[in-house]
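Protein details
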Amino acid sequence: MKLNEISSRTSEWFGGSGPLADVVVSSRVRLARNLAGFQFLSRCSSPQKTQILEKLKAAVMSLDLGDEVFYIGIDKAAVLDKDVLVERHLISRQHAHAKGPRGVVIANGEFFTAMINEEDHLRMQVFKAGLQLRECWEQISKIDDMIEQKIDYAFHPRYGYLTACPTNVGTGIRVSVMLHLPALRMTGQIEKFFAAAKSMNLAVRGLFGEGTEAVGDFYQLSNQVTLGVSEVEIVDEFTDSTIPKIVEYENLARDQLLVKQPEMLDDKTSRAIGLLKNARLISSQEALFLLSHLRMGVNMKRITGVSIPVINELFMLTQPAHLQLNSGKRLEPAGRDRLRAEIIRSRLNQN
């Protein structure tokens, strides 16, 4: 499997389907694990990191996931390839930019990835479209059990799974959802969302995770506490309470816009589709901003003739690294802006 074979398509979990998909773009459950008998990566030599990599690569590649898997050596990958993997959320920025032996195992459908030698020896994740955290947990739990039959994890009877970062000790689980919250921002209520998340010990990050800003009104919401609470409790709290409340608030904000500011709403969505269908130069930031407004307009039935899968496809395929890899050459910013506008015009004017 070559990376450009997946870079020209949308990830299965980013297709715009699933429960509550108008607000909840996707669900992810990640587990952090370390091998018994090895120090954490920050204290490992390069030969030890290689040993960890080979051991975990063999274990994960041998699994029966119901889909073919392929491996990419991140330490040997081209910068553009690493950037594409980050844009597709298959590896973290930290994994892309770290030093030493490291790699990632990816399922062809991109529902599963296993980062080897990121911050921990193993960080595996499962993605699904919409609000499907329980399904993510059930799948990754089975995968975790299969791996544990092949290797021994670093585990303490009292503290649970031992991880490089203390905030992951215990279950080692990170539950997160990607949310699209344009109405909360447009009505000036997004700060309330941030404050509520902070009070509940939840982390809010941008589109590409830790250290990134929210662009296109996309936010990643995840748990911060992993010790003293079970995986099922975390997943159930998110699924039954936390996320439905946020979805309710976003929908109330959308209703508020329809009742009190319909002209502003239609102006923003109409400007968005007008610019996207006609612009000759569009930056990555502007594209995300305009596509966000278009996505809201389609979900609120103010814009017709465009589907959410098409919008999500444009979100992903017009990212800088995707543009360059799919075009087969390095592009300067102006060249990327020109190609991005051309792709968006062509796709939207087909409808």
Q: What stands out?
A: The chain has two domains: 3-253, 262-348. The beta strands are 24-33, 69-73, 103-107, 112-116, 122-129, 155-156, 160-161, 173-180, 202-205, 218-223.
